[in-house]
Amino acid sequence: MSVNQPPVRAGVKPTRVSLVAVPEGGVSSLSGIYDVINACSIVDSSGRGGAAGPPFHVEIVGERKGWLDLASGIPFHVQRPIAEIAAADVVIVPSVLLQPGGWPTDRHAALVDWLRSMHERGAILCSACSGVFVLAETGLLDGQDVTVHYGYAREFAATFPAVSIHPEQALVVSGRREEFVSSGASTSWHDLVLYLIARFAGSATAQSAARFFALQWHQDGLAPYIVFEGRRDHGDREVLAAQQWLSRHFSVANPVEEMLKRSTLAASTFKRRFTTATGLTPIVYVQRLRIEDAKRRLERTAVPVDEIGWQVGYEEPAFFRRLFKRTTGVTPGAYRRRFQLPGFSPSIKESGRLPRRG
After folding, report:
1. What percent of the chain has pLDDT over 90?
2. Do strands 66-69 and 75-78 pair parallel, antiparallel, or not at all (unpaired)?
3. What is the C-alpha to C-alpha distance for residues 95 and 28, in angstroms, rounded to an integer?
4. Which residues contact 173 (CB under 8 A, 6 or more apart)?
5. Which CATH architecture is the domain 15-225 placed in?
6. Are strands 15-20 and 56-62 parallel, antiparallel or unpaired?
7. Hey, where are the domains in the chain?
8. CA–CA separation, 21 vs 6, rounded Å?
9. What is the Cα gyration radius of the chain?
10. How far from chain centre, in Å, is Cα 160?
11. Is 124:91 a contact under the CB 8 Å cutoff?
């Protein structure tokens, strides 16, 4: 990947983009965002490119100039130190890798102060995936809506409880002047970069970039991608025992009633404790388990949708289809088309059986 920026042509004021590199950063979103925004003047078919000059001036910035080893060990060149940057139109913090211990706040104090100053001077602050952890340290996101990788949602909520997160959304724009833009899991940085191109260079340029790089908006959100894993770190042994039983028997008739029979608690007490511990009522928890199993069957088998609904516990096909769409944001058929790999495991497809869980 080249770090050379095309020259800014006379008479044109490009949008100044500072793309932040930190040691915990991921290379894919950092280099991908840079390449797509940097290529706008090449792929633009709107008439702004060419003689008019590039619509963006993109720089890789960091706490120090020079080569920086990212989280994967790959070196990346930081073009300018943040101490030399007095103003920017857009600042983007790409994804960062969280260690098992979580995100260590206060590690990048100078960067956090600089982000606050950029915001005070009118910059739009953006994050891709887990990069929102860095932005949240500024305190500017308190009371705002953002999205984050769904795999980091619990960690983010525990670290920054004053920020409202929506991990099922691919892109969230918030703030009084729409100055906070966050994208969700992994490649939803595509949505972020297309949004920024459309906002500052026009929709035609964004469409040109989308065609050239084969980028797609995640118009259905990220709910179809989220794998449901019921919370089990709550410390309630009674509820945990019920969850373990449900994981193997969610498809039986009336699973909530069966679970209540197995409990030593009164029905009302059990339901209250279950909801407190897991964040979901027992019936919704069952529904999530059933839909998750249905997703795997849609991905890995050729069994008809209505049959899959019956296999996971629903006798009424219409109800199963409505519940599936309400939970994932897409219909069962659309989910299968999106996630089933061509020619994947023919023997499993024919039998309709899923591999045994470990």
Report:
1. 78
2. antiparallel
3. 9
4. 180, 181, 195
5. 3-Layer(aba) Sandwich (3.40)
6. parallel
7. 15-225, 237-351
8. 20
9. 24
10. 17
11. yes
Rounded to whole angstroms, what are the CA distances from 27 to 96, 223, 291?
9, 25, 34
CA distance 11 to 52: 8
Cα separation, 293 vs 295, in Å, equals 5
State how far the Cα of 37 lies from the Cα of 335, in Å rounded to an integer: 31
What's the angle, vertex CA 252, arms to CA 249 and CA 257, rounded to 5?
A: 90
Angle at which helix 267-278 crosses helix 255-262, to 10 degrees, equals 110
Q: What is this structure's pTM?
A: 0.83
* CATH of 237-351 given 3.30.565.10, 3.40.50.11540, 3.90.950.20, 1.10.10.60: 1.10.10.60
The SS3 call for residue 108 is: coil
Angle at 297 between CA 295 and CA 299, to 5 degrees: 70
Place of tokens 């599936």: 324
Q: Could you tell me the two tokens for 71?
A: 């989280």
**Identity of the amino acid at 278:** T
Measured CA to CA, the distance from residue 69 to residue 22 in angstroms comes to: 9
pLDDT in tens, 235-291: 999 999 999 999 999 999 999 999 999 999 999 999 999 999 999 999 999 999 999
pLDDT score of 47 more than 50: no
Alpha helical stretches, state H, the chain: 27-38, 40-43, 109-120, 132-136, 153-159, 189-201, 203-213, 237-249, 255-262, 267-278, 282-300, 305-311, 317-328, 332-339, 346-351
- Provide the residue type at 330 as one letter: V
